[in-house]
Amino acid sequence: MAHVISHTEVLNCGAEDAWECCKHSDKVLPDLLPEYFAKSEILEGHGGPGTVRVLHFGPAIPQAGAAKERLDTVDDATKTLTYTVVEGDPRYTNFTGEVKFAPTGENQTEATWTGHYDPVGDAPPPEHIKNISVLMFKTFEKAILAKKTVTHTETLAATPDAIWSAVKRENSILPAALPHIFESCTFVEGHGEVGSIRVCKMGSAIPNDQELVERVHLFDDASKTVGYTVIKGDPRFKHVSAVMQYAPGPTEGTTTATWTAHFVPVAEGVTMENKFVIAVWKALEAAAQA
């Protein structure tokens, strides 16, 4: 019978925010806790079930080396992630882990890590792994408390229905209208529904040949609202998520477009500009008018 080790930590932040940080821990942990997590590599996938990643540990974890993990479930409804250690500490076999976040009050979350394992010989319980889970949870809390918000609203000269129709076609609209910003936009998983993964190869206006990888976390036809979380993108930010909504405008035949982004900057003073959002809206407006 497998052995079990567990730890629960109360975090001073919302469960949704903690869950988003967990799903993007590959970026958050090396940024904020490099002495424990030197770097993370994604070998397969985009953060969903089946993703294989390697966590390289820092000098604060002596002789730990690296651990290869496979994500088994990533459940937004229950805010639960489970994984299997493919290669790790040789003192334990059949190691699986579960991370779960449950709201316990306003801006308060109960974060629980549970490990199941078989010890090799007389290996002691993996207390060091449990202690790392404590650091991980507090790092998520730190990132969330550093989160900043920016919003922008614009009136577009087209109806909400026409704009929303253009939003659904933006993978073809944006590279054609804004090739200097978007070289290409392609769904590599899904077709735009919640859970879909989109890869945007950025154009010459974006330095260093960046590639933007986004996960759709909200798509609602009724309210004409779409939300996404950046899996891979601008290195100036540890975390970025945004929501765009298209509502009836101040006059007939117009749309009020609202963009709200939440981000955690790598350094103080780094902010998020709205110029690319405005460019996207103007391209959607032109397509809607056409």
Automatic annotation (TrEMBL):
It holds the Pfam family Polyketide_cyc2. The keyword Hydrolase does not apply. GO terms for biological process: abscisic acid-activated signaling pathway; defense response. Its main location: cytoplasm. The keyword Hydrolase does not apply. InterPro entries: Bet_v_I/MLP, Bet_v_I_allergen, Plant_def-hormone_signal, Polyketide_cyclase/dehydratase, START-like_dom_sf. This is Bet v I/Major latex protein domain-containing protein. It comes from Ceratodon purpureus.
